[in-house]
Amino acid sequence: MYSCIQNDDDSAVPTITSSSYSMQGPPDKGYQNHNVTNVEHDSDSSAVPKNYQHILALAFAVKEINENPQLLPNITLGFHIYDSYFIPKWTYYATMQLISTADRFLPNYKCDIQNNLIAVIGGLDPQTSFYLATVLDVYKIPQLIYGYAPVMNDKTPGLTFHQLTPRESFQDTAILSLLIHFKWTWVGILIMSTDTGKRFLQAVSPKLTQMGICFAFLETIPTLSFLSEINDQLRNMAKIHDRIMASKANIVIVYGDTFSMVYLRWLPYLSEPEHVTNKPRGKVWIMTAQMELTAIIYQKNWDLDMFHGALSFTIYSNDIPGFHQFVESRNPSRTKEDGFIRDFWQQAFICVFSNPVVDMVKGDICTGKEKLDSLPESFFDLRMTGHSYNIYNAVYAVAHALHAMSSSKLKYKAIVEGEGLELQYQLAWQLHNFLRGVSFNNSAGDKVFLNQNGHLIAAFDVMNWIISSNQSFHRVKVGRVDPQAPPDEAFIINESAITWPTWFNQVQPLSQCTMNCYPGYSRKFKEGKPFCCYDCFTCSEGTISNQTDMNDCYKCPNETYPNKNKDLCIPKYISFLSYEKPLGLSLACFALSFCLITALVLGTFMKYHNTPIVKANNRSITYTLLISLLLCFLSALLFIGHPEKVVCLLRQTAFGIIFSVAVSCVLAKTIMVVLAFMITKPGSRIRKWVGKGLANSIVLSCSFIQASICIVWLATSPPFPDADKHSVSEEITLGCNEGSVTMFYCVLGYMGFLAIISFTVAFLVRRLPDSFNEAKFITFSMLVFCSVWLSFVPTYLSTKGKYMVAVEIFSIIVSSAGLLGCIFFPKCYIIVLRPELNSREQIIKRKT
To answer: How many Å apart are CA 136 and CA 119, to the nearest integer?
Structure first.
């Protein structure tokens, strides 16, 4: 159905002249002049009685304008209403009637200049508006549409429309904002199987995908058809119903028109023939702006539970003063000029008017006393709906544009001598420029403004559909989407005002393919599944995720480390082997204790300097060994405390040189034992080599090699203070970077080489007759020494942070204590506790 508006200065009262409102067949010849006053009720009719309000809104607007002396004085508006029957050929036929004579169908020929076609208001169906435009565009006749805009393609000429609805891109953004706000990422979509439905899908799909929202299913609503095909359509809807109910998506976006609601209302009754069970509960329906709660005659008393809690985007509408009373006053007996009211009355109240021509009338008789307010709101609404509000504003937009055109001195001339301004016959195309940018306040006080592109500048309201237990229906405004508002105010939603479907027990529903991967977890997508379907895995060691649904975990900065839940980076604390900590204090105490013991041993030996047991095996080497052991224990203290540059340079090199001196002394003592045994053989030539000079040479030469290695180390890549941020996850370890690891292991390797030689020689001579079996004691000491340092390397490499330093200190103390104990404890025992054995005779006796 669509209407045309004409200006007519012969009649001040508009009349409605049209064929039947119901879809029963094509119009006959002389369609626009045929007054329908009596229509027999047909039980097969599939009209939507609620759309009758659109006609009333049109008539009411024209009535108000004609009664307003300030708007269009001396000009009277009239209108005709035509039905397209959703068939292109009848749409074109009716369109040609608009540009034809009143009495005969002669397109492009009109002789009555007092009846001028000013504009056409298109129908709800976009295709109807498109078919109209292909003809009207030739004559530049403006068309105002209050439904979806037709889809244009490359083969379509640039047709002009004045759209009384906001651009659909605003609605797409509004839907996206709603889904993001409630974090609904798994949604189903129902669209019309039309070009506009495909356009919506093409426009919204990339945006949804970009924001991480997936389609659980995508179904199409059958297009409007005649009753002969309704069974096939319902079978298709039954399959759609089963797929919807099988889906885990709780949110269903429905892009449709008024008649789409007729199909949706079939859903609760498709699975069971008895029409009573298996209602599609547990879904939140999100309706687009063109959808209204409507019903056909069969659905008058059907329940509305499935729509309870639905959310819909609606174009702003308001109650027009006087419209409610205008609608209530409609009555078949008092409104003779209304050619639609009798058919509407029969549809709405399921009755028929008595017909004197027909003897028998099937069904109840319409009395005309039925009350409109007794009808369900889904069947007829006394308040102005969104579509009716747009039609009302469309009529006023034409009137204001026409008023501006008639007042323009540039396009119209004044008739002098007091006759005022008289509208000359003008082509309708001149009205286009005045419709662009038209702005006015309607009788409800709302501002209506069309921009230069012919689009209405308005916001969307978010409405919550509430179905009461008595099946009464009302809508509650819970939000607003205003494209002209600041970004932070463009989308406003009041969650506390929303009533959710009873299935969710008034708790905000979730709609996700997979539950969120919370901080501390990352997503792993499932192969062959939409990207909204994934598995959650804990972040690996050393990584975190601090947001929901992160694709990958990331490492914390060097100065921080992950907490236990792996969702936060915590600053690392500074760590080093300190005297204030138990470990450092314990090692320092051990080192000092053994220093004291070594000093006591050295003092004891010096006190009994001239006794045979001290004089045996070279006193100078013995004192050198004790002093080097004392320094070894003291060198362990260099590893404790805050690392400084000088300390880092000294601690490894000093430790390496001092230990080399100690091991060299042990090697010298071992070699001296061998030589001492060999010179006892008659005629031995080795006697000349035995003496203090040989022992000192061994110690000096072996120590010099280690000192040379350390000098090269310090010259090429010296150690330096460093902060280790990676070895231990929770701390920054302050220590000394060895500079060259190769040189470090060269120092250890050379020291180990000396120890192995000493152990080998001592082991070979362990059974030689010697005073107090010193060779055997040296063997034990070197066995301890080699065992400690062989176990040191893997232990050192397997530990991290300050414990690496602790392992090295421990190795220094234990190996030094092994040398001290194994070599000097037996001698101190004799010196202190068994002085009778500390005599020359006992030494000679033991050697023998």
So the answer is: 9
Q: How many Å separate Cα 517 from the centre of its chain?
A: 11
**CA–CA distance, 495 with 178 (Å, rounded to integer):** 11
| Whole-angstrom distance, CA of residue 268 vs CA of residue 709 | 91
Crossing angle of helices 619-635 and 582-607, in 10° steps, is 170
Same domain membership, residue 497 and residue 484:
yes
Closest listed residue to residue 161, CA positions, set 191, 116, 206, 131: 131
Residue 89 lies in a domain: yes
CA distance readout (Å), 319 to 68, 103, 383, 513, 817? 19, 39, 7, 42, 101
**What residue has token string 């205008």?**
326
State residue 676 phi and psi, 5-degree precision.
-65, -35
> Residue 477's closest CA among 458, 499, 456, 455?
499
Helix axes 774-798, 802-832, angle to 10 degrees: 170
Segment 790-827, tens digit of pLDDT: 888 888 878 888 888 899 899 889 988 988 988 888 88
Question: DSSP secondary structure string, 595-618?
Answer: HHHHHHHHHHHHHTTTSHHHHTT-
pLDDT for 593 beyond 90: yes
Q: Are 3 and 121 in contact (CB under 8 A)?
A: yes
- pLDDT 10s digits, 318-354: 889 999 999 988 888 877 778 888 888 888 888 888 7
In a domain, 217, yes or no: yes
Distance CA 142, CA 160 (A): 7
Angle, CA of 808, 811 and 813, to the nearest 5°: 110
The answer as to whether 236 is a domain residue is yes
Q: Domain check: are 487 and 599 in the same one? A: no
Q: Give the total number of structural domains in the chain.
A: 4
Q: Where are the beta strands (DSSP E) in 499-652?
A: 521-525, 534-538, 543-544, 554-555, 560-562, 569-571, 573-575
| 512: in domain | no
Please, what is the Cα angle at 52 between 50 and 56, to 5 degrees? 130
Structure tokens at 29: 């010849």
C-beta of residue 47 within 8 angstroms of C-beta of residue 224: no
Q: What single-letter DSSP state applies at residue 211?
A: T
**Residues 477, 496 contacting (CB under 8 angstroms):** no
Helix (H) or strand (E) holding 664: helix 645-678
- Can you tell me the distance from the alpha carbon of 685 to that of 687, in angstroms, rounded to the nearest whole number? 5
Domain boundary among 431, 449, 467: 449
